[in-house]
Write a structure and sequence with these properties.
Distance between the termini: 163 Å
Mean pLDDT: 81
Strand order of the largest sheet: 10-11-13-14-15-16-17-18
Structural class: alpha/beta
Helix content: 40-55%
Number of strands: 18
Number of helices: 19
Strand content: 15-25%
């Protein structure tokens, strides 16, 4: 009989070990599943709490955001956003004002949860609330909205610690229960099966029949006794495990107590934060209503208060007066002392203005820059004039020094007044018209020399409207370049030879009429149009020089009237230098004496040096009408003095003017400076000027100002032409 071949077999694992592993693994898996379910439930509740807290916080700051949006005050809106960012889960803040974005701030947040897969990813939620007009307006209108993005994955660190503690406790409990389950199953149910399995596992085909011995009754009793003892051992083990679980429970209770203490501390911190937020809101309200420098009402808050007060006064049939105050020559004060001293000066003036009117039931505000406004209820024009006089007197008594003022050695103010007659609420004028009338009166006060009070009248309003209309026409003329240079020749009265030409600006109106400078220069200067007009004239002069050179027409010397402001414009100075270098004609800049001070500033002197280095001559225009001193002449180093026509024209009829001309000629001779007289209209004046030593002359006696075409035609026909 053939022997059985060897059959390869795998090593068998003991059944007791397999049962133990399966039971323990099952206990661990079930424990982790139930623990994970509890963790997910707690995490969702914590995220909902984070969202609810953010919604409550947003509701508390909404009034401050509405106030900032209503006044369109960006710093206040930024402070609201900064306050919201104290909530750790808020990632972005957006404030809209009627569709316009005032604030759009975003920050990056890192989740505070451990890496739990999808559970730890960002979980953003957008919360939005409408913004209503502040309660004091009496309206309940939506003016915008505030929205925040809340990342619900940014939970409190304490929650993470509690989550980890709970998970570890659940794992330990499940392991202990698994061990207990293994012991019970193995001892009570599986031991006999395991023994039989071991017996079968040791049997092989060559071992013969499997003999399973029957245990005697005594052995069975012993087995029962052993089983009871085993159960007792297992019970003791379970008690020990339960004690360890209890200890873990006590540790968890202690941990919860510590968390509760931390929560209480957090609550106190939140209360403190809320108190600080209330203070910030109060500060925001003050910023929305007050001028930060002077402490007076700002313009926006004044407009609201004044509108309500004006309506009440008109309904009650009371007089209402508006007073506008402007600090005279404040820019010169600011430039001399600096901005910090300028701010202190404005604060002093504001205090004087407010304290003088505080007992008159007035609403006082800083209207902008160095301008202040007051609305006086139940106050007629006479009473308002009395209050304005008190303001002037108090300013005079304060003796705030102002060395750069041309009307006093101290700070002064110009005041414009406008009053409405008592009547029904719908009677004219409106508040805006009253403020506009006061502004026109203020303009007239400055025109009359400043440091005075002017009451609005129909004549003043008509004059201002005409001036503003002319300013508008001038602006259109600048846009269309309707200005052009005219040229008035200058002669040597002894020989009649042409010695130069002065470029004078003319305005060619739409109807073809040519307007002289007297018709528009004051308005142009008051509105800052002179640099733009001078630029147009300079372009015309450049074209004229090129045409004269091409036609061979002589232009021995060309003079340009230049206000002091142009010397501060680098582009204009460079254009003059370029013109001087590109032409054989001597270029001369005529500086108005009335625009120069006894001590010209360094920038003007530096520009004059640059011009002289380029070959440009400097001439003082209208000499004798300003206040230039000998020291100033020596500092400016002009090539020529131009005697003003206001002195030349009456010199034959008034010996005093004759002596003035003689003195100017003597001063020029002493300083080695040429002299030229303008306004020469008769032969007698020309002869007297020659006798006094002033042969260079200009005026209607020789030639009137003419267009570029007329000049080129006259001197092209007779290049050597003389006066006559």
């Amino acid at each position: 009989m053939a022997a059985f071949p060897d059959i390869p077999t795998r090593p068998r694992r003991p059944l007791s070990r397999v049962l133990a592993k399966v039971t323990l693994l099952l206990a661990l898996v079930l424990g982790m599943i139930f623990g994970a379910m509890q963790v997910i439930t707690d995490l969702r509740q914590e995220k909902d709490a984070v969202q609810y807290s953010a919604e409550e916080f947003l509701a508390s700051v909404a009034p401050s955001a509405a106030s900032a949006a209503y006044n369109f005050y960006r710093p206040a809106a930024e402070q609201v956003a900064s306050g919201l960012f104290t909530q750790r889960a808020i990632a972005s803040v957006t404030i809209l004002n009627e569709g316009t974005v005032m604030i759009d701030m975003t920050r990056h947040l890192d989740p505070t949860l451990p890496n739990l897969g999808a559970l730890s990813y960002a979980d953003p939620v957008v919360i939005e609330r409408p913004l209503y007009t502040p309660p004091e307006t009496g309206r309940n209108e939506i003016i915008g909205s505030i929205s925040i993005t809340v990342d619900r994955a940014v939970v409190a660190p304490a929650f993470v610690n509690r989550l980890v503690s709970y998970f570890l406790l659940a794992t330990i409990k499940n392991v202990a229960l698994g061990v207990l389950l293994i012991a019970i199953i193995y001892t009570a149910l599986a031991r006999h099966i395991v023994n039989l399995s071991d017996l079968i596992g040791r049997w092989s085909p060559g071992s013969g029949a499997l003999a399973v011995p029957q245990p005697p009754a005594l052995l069975k009793d012993t087995e029962l006794a052993l089983l009871g003892q085993r159960l007792q051992d297992l019970a003791d083990t379970a008690v020990g495990e339960l004690q360890r679980v209890e200890q873990s429970h006590l540790a968890a209770v202690k941990s919860n107590s510590e968390l509760s203490q931390k929560s209480e501390n957090l609550s106190q911190a939140v209360e403190k934060q809320n108190a600080e937020l209330k203070q910030a809101n109060q500060r925001l309200k003050e910023l929305a209503e007050r001028d930060a420098l002077t402490g007076l009402n700002n313009r926006g808050f004044f407009d609201k208060q004044a509108a309500a007060a004006f309506a009440e006064a008109r309904a009650a049939g009371q007089h209402v007066s508006v007073m506008l105050l402007d600090v005279d020559y404040f820019k010169a004060y600011n430039d001399y002392y600096g901005h910090q001293d300028g701010d202190r000066c404005l604060s002093k003036v504001a205090r004087i203005f407010h304290d003088t009117l505080v007992g008159t039931n007035a609403i006082v505000a800083r209207y902008g820059g160095e301008e202040f406004v007051a609305l006086l209820r139940d106050t007629d024009t006479d009473t308002a004039l009395e209050q304005a006089a008190k303001v002037h007197n108090t300013l005079r008594a304060s003796k705030i020094e102002h060395p750069r003022s041309t009307i006093a050695d101290r700070i002064t103010a110009s005041i414009g007044l406008a009053s409405s007659p008592p009547g029904a609420a719908h009677a004219d004028p409106t508040l805006d018209q009253l403020i506009s009338a006061a502004d026109e009166a203020l303009y007239e006060a400055k025109r009359r020399g400043r440091n005075r009070t002017v009451v609005s009248t129909d004549d003043i309003r008509d004059t201002i409207r005409k001036t503003r209309l002319q300013a508008q026409n001038l602006l259109r003329a600048i846009e269309t370049e309707a200005f052009e240079p005219f040229f008035q020749p200058q002669f040597d009265a002894r020989s009649g030879a042409l010695v130069g030409v002065e470029a004078l600006v003319r305005w060619r109106r739409d109807n073809g009429v040519i307007a002289s400078p007297d018709a528009f220069l004051k308005t142009a200067a008051a509105n800052g149009f002179l640099p733009m007009i001078d630029r147009i004239v300079l372009d015309g002069v450049t074209e004229f020089m090129a045409a004269a050179a091409q036609a061979g027409v002589p232009v021995p010397r060309l003079s340009l009237n230049t206000p002091r402001e142009n010397l501060l414009e680098r582009d204009y100075v460079h254009s003059i230098i370029a013109l001087a270098k590109s032409s054989d004609t001597q270029i001369v800049l005529e500086l108005l004496e009335t625009a120069l001070f006894d001590a010209p500033d360094d920038v003007v002197l530096w520009q004059l040096d640059a011009l002289r280095s380029a070959g440009v001559e400097i001439e003082i225009d209208d000499f004798g009408t300003g206040h230039t001193s000998i020291v100033s002449l020596m500092a400016l180093q002009p090539s020529r003095l131009k005697i003003a026509k206001e002195i030349v024209i009456p010199m034959l009829d008034n010996p005093a003017y004759d002596r003035i001309v003689h003195s100017i000629v003597q001063i020029s001779t002493a300083l080695d400076i040429d002299v030229l007289a303008e306004g020469v209209e008769t032969q007698q004046i020309s002869d007297r000027l020659v006798a006094l030593g002033c042969p260079l002359q200009q005026g209607y006696h020789f030639a009137r100002p003419m267009s570029a075409e007329a000049y080129l035609k006259r001197f092209a026909e007779s290049p050597g032409a003389t006066a006559g």
